[in-house]
């Protein structure tokens, strides 16, 4: 059966980011462990706590919509994770290169989440789901802040890796 309702697309996208956020709660501890730079480590740990809150907010959205909180397998975020895993396995990077790499891996995930929440906000606005949109906006603000921190760290670590 073909999808014809914007609300179905909204739910699909919600399930997609719900899957992605859950995956990130298991990926971020690994990134924190792999990072050598204390500030980068701390940044991943902080974003892990925020990510747990993101999952929580999405569960609130499911409740608002009166739908079961279930994820929909998201090949996009799986691919970002697979890219990270492959690099770490194949390249066995030095600590400096590893830190520089991790800022890029993290930034890829943040860009994915930012695109997902921006889309959900647009759809949610069109559907009049004001309470859901407010929760998405809170998550989006965290993702944007996390991306900005990663970009700052990337500049610092790229210079350090060169030295
Ligand atoms: Fe998130
Ligand atoms: Fe994030």
Largest beta-sheet details: none
What is the terminal-to-terminal distance?
A: 58 Å
Number of H- or I-type helical stretches: 5
Helix and strand content put the structural class at mainly alpha
User: Tally of extended strands?
Assistant: 0
Classify the beta-strand content into a percent band.
under 5%
Order of helices and strands: HHHHH
Uncertain ranges: none
Question: Gyration radius, to the nearest Å?
Answer: 17 Å
Shape: elongated
Bound molecules: fe (ii) ion
| Average predicted local confidence, pLDDT | 96
In summary, what is this structure?
The chain is mainly α. The chain has helices at 6-34, 38-65, 75-91, 95-127, 130-162.
Protein described:
The structure is a single chain. This protein is about 85% helix and about 0% strand. The chain is an all-alpha fold and about 160 residues long. The structure holds fe (ii) ion (2 copies). One fe (ii) ion binds near residues 47, 113 and 143.
């Amino acid at each position: 059966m073909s999808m014809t309702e914007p609300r179905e697309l909204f739910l699909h996208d919600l399930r997609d980011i719900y899957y992605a956020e859950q995956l990130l709660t298991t990926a971020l501890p690994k990134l924190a462990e792999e990072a050598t730079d204390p500030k980068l480590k701390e940044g991943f740990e902080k974003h892990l706590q925020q990510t747990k809150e993101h999952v929580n907010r999405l569960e609130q959205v499911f409740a608002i919509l009166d739908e079961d909180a279930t994820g929909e397998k998201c090949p996009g975020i799986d691919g970002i994770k697979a890219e990270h895993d492959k690099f770490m396995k194949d390249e066995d990077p030095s600590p400096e290169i590893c830190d520089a790499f991790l800022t890029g891996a993290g930034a890829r995930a943040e860009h994915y989440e930012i695109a997902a929440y921006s889309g959900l906000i647009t759809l949610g606005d069109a559907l009049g789901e004001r309470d859901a949109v407010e929760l998405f906006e809170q998550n989006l603000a965290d993702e944007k802040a996390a991306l900005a921190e990663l970009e700052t760290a990337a500049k610092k670590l790229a210079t350090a890796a060169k030295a």
